Amino acid sequence: MKMDEMATHSAPSRAGPAIEISGLTLDYAAVDRMITALSGFELSIARGEFVSVIGPSGCGKSTLLSVIGGLLRPSVGEVRIDKAPVTGPSEKLGFVFQDPVLLPWRTVLENVLLPAQLRSGSARDYVERGLQLLQTVGLQGFERNYPKELSGGMRQRVAIARALLLDPEVLLMDEPFGALDAITRERMAYELLRIWQGTDKTVVFVTHSIAEAILLSDRVVAMSGRPGRVVAECRIDLPRPRGLRSHEDARFLAVSRELHRLLMHSEENRA
Amino acid sequence: MKLTPRAALWIARPAVALLVLALWIAYVTLWSIPAYVLPHPLDVLERLAGQLWSGDILPHIWATIREAGLGFLLGSTMAVLIGTAISRSRFVEDVLRPYIITTQTTPLVALAPLFLVWFGFGILPKVLIAAIICFFPLLVNVMVGLRSVNPTERRLFQSLKASAWQMFIRLEVPSALPYVFAGLRITVVLSVIGSVVGEFVGAHAGLGYLAVTSGGNLDTELLFVAVLLLMTLGLTFYLLVLETERRVLFWR
Known about the structure:
CATH architecture of the largest domain in chain B: Orthogonal Bundle
CATH superfamily of the largest domain in chain B: MetI-like
Helix content of chain B: over 70%
Oligomer: heterodimer
Number of strands of chain B: 0
Radius of gyration of chain B: 23 Å
Distance between the termini of chain A: 22 Å
Strand content of chain B: under 5%
Strand content of chain A: 15-25%
Number of domains of chain B: 2
Distance between the termini of chain B: 36 Å
CATH topology of the largest domain in chain B: MetI-like fold
Largest interface: A-B, 24 and 18 residues
Helix content of chain A: 25-40%
Structural class of chain B: mainly alpha
C-alpha cells in the first residue's frame, strides 16, 4: 500500500509506547439494537508523540477518546497507559472537548483551577501555575473575566490551560477547534503546536480536517466508518516547527491527497 | 426632535397608564356611574391615603404579607428539597412525573375550603394554600434545572474524577439556579394569590378578607383600595425576587 511507503521515514526516537490500544471493541445498546462503535482497534502511541485520529462523522473517534480516557469501558480489549490498564479516569490524562465547557459562574482563572479544586478541595497551591498557564495560552490579563466575555478561540485556550493544570502526560483532544471559524481554527492549531512543543506531552487529537491533522501531527491515523477500525496510518515527516509554510511543502500536499483518497475510498466501500 | 428608543419607552409606558386612567375618569364622569359600581380613581386614592393615615388598613396588609411570605418560603423550601431528592433517582422521577403534572393541572385553590375545615380561620390554612400553590411549579423547575447539565459538562467532571457530591454542588446546583429563579418569579406572585384565596374562604383579617367584606357592603372604593394594595404587594415581592436573582446569577 502506498501509505506504507510514506510511513517508512523513521519516527523521532522516543521512549516506549505511552498508550497501547489492543483489540479494542466497543458495543453499546441503542434504542433497538446493539451498535458496534469500534471493532478490533489497534494503536500504539509513543511518549511525546502527536497523533491525530481522522475519519468520517460517527466512526467512533470520540468514543475512542472516551475509552482511552477511562470514561467508557471497552467490551473487548484494553487500553494501557504506561503499561497500566486504564480502569477509569486518571490524572495522567487531560481532556479538551469540542465545546470548551467552561463554567459560566467561574472566572477564567477559577475555571482553569477546577481540576485542582475537584482533586484536593482547594486550588490554592495551583494559583501560581494557573496564572502561568494562562500566560502560556496567551490570556494574561483575562484571569478575572467571565467566559461570556471571551471569544470562542479564547474560551478554547482556557480549556487547554485547564487540561494542562495537573500536568497530565497525555492530552486527549476531541475536535477542539471544530466549533471555531476557519481562520481562528488555523491560528489555534499554530498556538497548540507552540504550546505542545514546550512540553513532552503525548497528544491524541481527533479531527475531521485532513489539513489540520497533517499540520499538527507526527502521525495520522485514518479510521473507517462504523464500526471504527484503523484503515491507514501515515507518518508525517514535515520539519518542525511547522507553520504557514508547511502547507506549501510538497510532502504536505502528497500526504493530503493520499489521505483524502483513502478516506473517500473507505466511505465508498461503506456505502 | 428625535427620541432615542429608550426615551420613547419611558414616555410611552406612563402614557399607557395615563390613558387608562383618563378613560376610566371619562367613563365615570360622563355617564355618572355610581361609586358602588365604579368609583372615581381619585376617590380611591383619597380613600387609600385616609386608610394608611388612620392605620386602619395596616393589620390587613401585614396579615397578607405574613401569609404570602411564609407560604412562599415554606412552599419554595419544600419544592427545592423534594425536587432535589426526587431528581437523585431517574427512576423515582419517572414514576412520579405523571402525578406531578396532574397536580399542576389541578386548581389547588379549590382545596381552600378543605383547609378551612382542617385548620380553622387562623393564619395556618392561608400559609398552607400559598405554600401548596407555590410548591408544584417550582418543583418542576428544580427538577428540570438539575437535569439541565449538558453531557459534555458531565464528561468533563467525570474525567476529573469528581465525586457525586462535587458533581452536584459544583455543577448541577449552579446549572439549576436559573431555572429555580424562573420558578420563584412565578411562585412569588402565586403566593399572594394563594393567601387571598385562603382569606376569601374564611378569615378575620387580610387584604383578601377586606376585598370580600367591602364588596359585600358595596363599599367598592375600599375594594379597589384592597386590590391596589394587593397589586403593589405582588409587584414588590416580584421585584425582590428579581433583584435577588440579579445578584445571585451575576454571570448571566
